Amino acid sequence: MAYVEHANIFVLDAEETINFLTTAIPSWSIRGQGKMDWFGEEVRWFHVGNNDSYIAVQEGGEGQVQNWKEKWTGVKHIGIVVSDLESLVSRLSEAGYPVDHAGAQHPYRRNVYIFDSNNIQYEFIEYYSDKPEEKNDYSM
To answer: 0.70 exceeded by the pTM?
Structure first.
């Protein structure tokens, strides 16, 4: 079996990203944290998630994430599956994180894209089927 355990992101403000992630997914928490030497500079790091997967958040990033519509090389968004997309959208909207845009219409899934204040884009997906041939149907 293989699965993605974590993604590592460098941000300007770790607390902002932690707030975004734990508002989006209240069952997630900081499962580990510390400081490390990043090529001569001390940076703080946090693992935010659950026992099986997490986002590794490192603080001390420089510059801004580029516009996701441009063709730069790098990660465009992080996709996270949730069981109740409507509740997630409501929680994030109330916390000041509106939906940027929705994904294409599909009978077996719904997805939205939301930015945190570090300008990192997240895709949140709710599947309406457990059948791989339905939820992974790309012909629509």
So the answer is: yes
Predicted confidence at residue 25, as pLDDT, reads 96
Report the sign of the C-alpha dihedral through residues 131, 136, 139, 140, in that order.
Answer: positive
The residue whose two tokens read 């409507």 is 86
- Listed in sequence order, the DSSP H helices in the chain are 14-24, 85-94, 132-135
Helix (H) or strand (E) holding 125: strand 121-127
Structure tokens belonging to residue 82: 């949730």
Question: Using CA atoms, how far apart are residues 105 and 73, in angstroms rounded to an integer?
Answer: 27
**Rounded to whole angstroms, how far apart are CA atoms 132 and 72?**
31
Q: Two tokens at 115? A: 């930015």
6-62+75-135 — its CATH code? 3.10.180.10
Structure tokens at 16: 């902002």
pLDDT of 25-61, one tens digit each?
999 999 999 999 989 999 999 999 999 999 999 998 8
Nearest to 51 by CA among 3, 114, 118: 3
In the chain, what are the domain boundaries?
6-62+75-135
